[in-house]
Structures are given as C-alpha cells and as structure tokens.
Design a protein that fits this description.
With 325 residues, the protein is mostly helical. Helices cover 55% and strands 7% of the residues. Strands 1-2-3 form a three-stranded parallel β-sheet. Strands 4-5 form a two-stranded parallel sheet. 38% of the residues are buried. The chain binds adenosine monophosphate.
C-alpha cells in the first residue's frame, strides 16, 4: 500500500537546552502536524559538530534532545524520531551536492554572512551547512519543512539544489517547501531581539520556576506609570503574553494596555504565572521519560534503522543518476 500522506521533515541541533523560540517557532508544529503528515523528525547531531566538539557533551545533548521531543508530545508511534548521524548517506549526498554548488551561492546565505560580519571563526562545516541541510531534506523526499523564519532561506537553498540536480542529472528530487507560521516566525527574546542562544536572551523551554521568574523580571521596560496607556505592539512583555495566555486573556490584557491601568509589574506577574502553568507539566513529563534512558536509546536505534532504509532507497536512485551505482 502506498502512503498517501505528504512527507514532513525537520530537525533541531542538540546544542544544549532548547528555548521557547525553538518550541513555538518549530517544535510545536512537529507535534501539531504529526497526524496529518508522514512525519520524520531528527536530532541534528552532525550539524551540532560545527560547535559542540566534545564527545561526552554531544552524546548527552543528543539523549536530552530526544527527551525534549518526547516531553512536548512527539509520539514515536506516529513520528519517525531519529538521529541524523544514523543516516551517513546524508554526508554522501552532501558531497554530491557540493560538486554542483558554487561558492558564491553559499556565500549569499544569511547565516554565513552574519557569522562573517561578526568576525567569527567560520569552519567549513558552518559554511557548508545549507548543503547538509539540503541532503537531510531531499534524501527523505520531503514535501514540507516546518521551521522558523531564520531557516527559510536554507529551505529555499534545498529547493534550488534539487532543481540544479534535476537539471544536471535528470528528475530525481521533489521540491520541498518551508512551512512557517506567521505569528511565531520569529519569537523575540527577553531583550526584544530574535530569541537566540548567541544573544543570551533565551528562556529555556524546560525552565525551572526560578529561571522563569528571573528571566521575566529581567525584561527591560520603560518608565511609564501604571495609569498611562501603553502600546502592546511595541511591548516585549506583551509579545510573550501572546504565546502563553489564551485568546480571552490576551484581549483583556491588550485592552488594559491601551486604556492604561496595567503596570509592568502586574503584567510580568501575569506572565510568570502563565509561563509556570504552561512549563510545569512539560518539565514533569520530561523527568518521567528521563527515568528510562534505555528506552530512549532503543527508540532512536529502531527509528534510525527505518530512516536509513528510506534514505538508502533514494540514494540508489541518486547513485544511478550520477553514474556511481
Ligand atoms: P536550531 O537550534 O538552530 O537548530 O533551530 C531549530 C529550529 O528553531 C529552527 O527551525 C529555527 O528556525 C527555529 N528557531 C530558532 N530560534 C527561533 C526564534 N527565535 N523564533 C522562531 N523560531 C526559531
């Protein structure tokens, strides 16, 4: 029987604790869409080596990331949850893509340009990141890739590379599309910039109550008094309310902002209470899964085998098309 569902693929790098930007921008969609799609979610450990260069840390982060996925509701009976490195074929495909991609094309990537502008030391892995990402996506024949806005260009790169391959070697790859939800495409951090570990403005998805309290209290505010009307559209605390309050409460808070009468202290207290209520059950689920790491390793191992089998079939086609079968 053929599977009529469209194929979804995405992944997150195991570089430490995921933050609420990763969750609302991408990971939540993995859970919400796992019934509708043939969902394949991976732990991007090859990608993580560009920054995590310590074996113990990388394997710890990898198991941690599997726990994170299970805790937010990824169901391994519905979603193929696997480790990227269980499919070494992606490196082979990445090499083939390297050979049909020009340097100037990769030099136009935002992530590369940002790193260069900050004078960061850029290893070849970081420069070549879009190629490996294209291989992750295309080897699985994916239709859609749920990601945050910052990864949109990389999915477009995967499309461009697929087109180039198809033109050069014959029709082999489907052209994937990024799936980005407008309201969460860029989740802001405590300082109002995009939430990102490199800006030090994150709130961890599995934050403790103390961490939540400290992070929210640290959100900078201006000197407007309680009675003064405030603009919710430019307020950092309100941006978080939109993620953690229900619709009724959001509109009540919005009204009080515009009319005046809601001070920043009270707004922060409401946010802290809502965040704690949202995060506590996730943290508890995570702790429960963490009691059986053997089970986690088995899930990854079994799913890794299945994902590799799917990739293997695609690679047979690719090798034939290229002339290395
Ligand atoms: P990474 O940790 O770079 O592998 O990112 C994992 C996923 O989270 C990607 O789909 C990103 O686009 C998404 N993401 C990261 N930061 C944010 C953010 N601040 N807002 C929305 N999505 C984000």
């Amino acid at each position: 029987m053929t599977n009529a569902k469209k194929i979804l693929i995405s992944g997150v790098k195991p570089t430490g604790r995921p933050h609420i930007g990763n969750y609302f921008g991408a990971m939540k969609q993995f859970v919400d869409l796992q019934d509708e799609y043939d969902a394949r979610i991976f732990i991007a450990d090859y990608h993580a080596i560009t920054t995590v260069q310590n074996a113990e840390q990388l394997s710890r982060h990898t198991i941690d990331m599997a726990l994170d996925y299970l805790a937010i509701g990824i169901d391994p009976a519905k979603t193929l949850l696997f480790k990227q490195s269980d499919i070494p074929e992606v490196c082979e495909l990445g090499w083939i893509f390297n050979c049909i991609t020009t340097m100037p094309f990769l030099m136009r990537a935002h992530a590369y340009k940002d790193a260069e502008a900050k004078n960061k030391e850029i290893n070849v892995g970081i420069f070549d990141y879009p190629i490996l990402m294209a291989a992750d996506i295309l080897v699985q024949n994916a239709d859609v890739v749920p990601v945050g806005q910052d990864q949109k260009q990389h999915v477009e790169y995967a499309r461009d590379i697929a087109e180039k391959f198809n033109r050069t070697f014959g029709d082999t790859f489907k052209l994937p599309n990024a799936l980005i939800y407008e309201n969460v495409k860029t989740v802001v951090g405590t300082d109002g910039q995009k939430m990102s570990k490199s800006y030090g403005n994150t709130i961890p998805l599995f934050a403790t109550d103390d961490e939540i309290q400290k992070a929210v209290m640290g959100i900078p505010t201006n000197s407007q008094g309680i009675a003064e009307p405030k603009d919710p559209d430019t307020d950092n605390i309100f941006a978080f309310h939109k993620l953690f309050a229900d619709e009724k409460e959001i509109s009540e808070i919005e009204k009080r902002y515009r009319e005046g009468g809601l001070g920043y202290k009270e707004s922060k207290d409401i946010l802290i209470a809502n965040m704690k209520r949202f995060i506590a059950p996730l943290r508890e689920k995570r702790e429960a899964f963490a009691k059986d790491e053997e089970m986690i390793r088995n899930i990854l191992k079994e799913n890794g085998k299945k994902a590799r089998e799917l990739a293997h079939q695609k690679m047979e086609e690719v090798r034939k098309a290229v002339g290395i079968a």
